[in-house]
Amino acid sequence: MRRKLIVLLMAIATPVAAQQTPKLEPIPEPPPMPAGASDPAQEPQVTILKRGQDTVQEYRIGGRLYMIKVTPPHGVPYYLIDHEGKGVMTRQDVMPTLAVPMWVIKSW
């Protein structure tokens, strides 16, 4: 008898709980971007070239080459990265998971 009563109460309560809709609030508008945040000179420029059968992507910031991604037709892509900004590229077979920030404070 007790089980039948519990099942009956659950059967009555389930549709009532399903009909209640949550109160939704509109999403606020995002704040405007700061004035100097979208400087096109600081955006990375990507140039895609076809050298033989390889696809080469050159990444530049401010006209300075800092990374090259080489994708062979049958293989895993590898990266040539200029870590110190001296024009010396070192090969990395996979992108690093941790990149330490290296900002230029002042250059002349």
From TrEMBL:
The keyword Acyltransferase does not apply. Residues 20-44 are annotated as: Disordered. It comes from the Bacteria. InterPro entries: DUF2782. Residues 25-34 have a biased composition (Pro residues). Residues 1-18 form the signal peptide. Keywords: Signal. The keyword Oxidoreductase does not apply. This is DUF2782 domain-containing protein.
